[in-house]
């Protein structure tokens, strides 16, 4: 395992999956399928099971939790409500949408404490009572090696909470405004950018301010990474919503098949210098506005 690319992950198998009506207002990536809710949920479970099988075949340790409730349509995206950090640290986050707050489950934290070295759990979720939200590694894209938290401004990334997280966990915040091709604000930073060990994928032209755009590109490059600039169309196809993990044979970039199809040959070649690509078929799950990265909560903890 490298600092940026964990070898173990947490994933939640959904049972009541659908495109969440409570998040549709600010998530322009969401769409709807002309199917019954039961059919959509069944397709999402099939995609989830196939994704877990592919990750395990690549040598990634996957801890699967079943979500059997009917009130958590976005439960397949656990990276928003908790994160883990080297040194044994865990954060639990407040969520913006009321029905997403039901996704938090302490049996996940209990497994982490049992199987990994957990020193402390900092729980920010009580700040939901003050209508504050910081949606984990959706709102923040973390450079674990350089200790930088990249954040696109949104209702899901409260600046006071961000400052508190960065103070507790030792990150420098780099905050910017970002909009999609239609001018709508990017709802989660992790649809805009992915940071691997030797490369970064980022939709630079969607960062509104030219100075901040240059700052983001420079900071990513300072660590010796190849900065791969994604177009607005590639971002719309979830090419920014990927995650680097460590498999049996080294680093793998996990992304959706749709995202991979949007990448150009030169971009694929740059990634392939240091990581193999692992595409997952996620057409149903992507209708909820998230893709491969959103499904995967990396475990940046040492095993017991």
TrEMBL record:
InterPro entries: Amdntrnsf_FN0238 (IPR014541). This is Arginine deiminase-related protein. It comes from Sedimentitalea todarodis. The lineage of its organism: Bacteria, Pseudomonadati, Pseudomonadota, Alphaproteobacteria, Rhodobacterales.
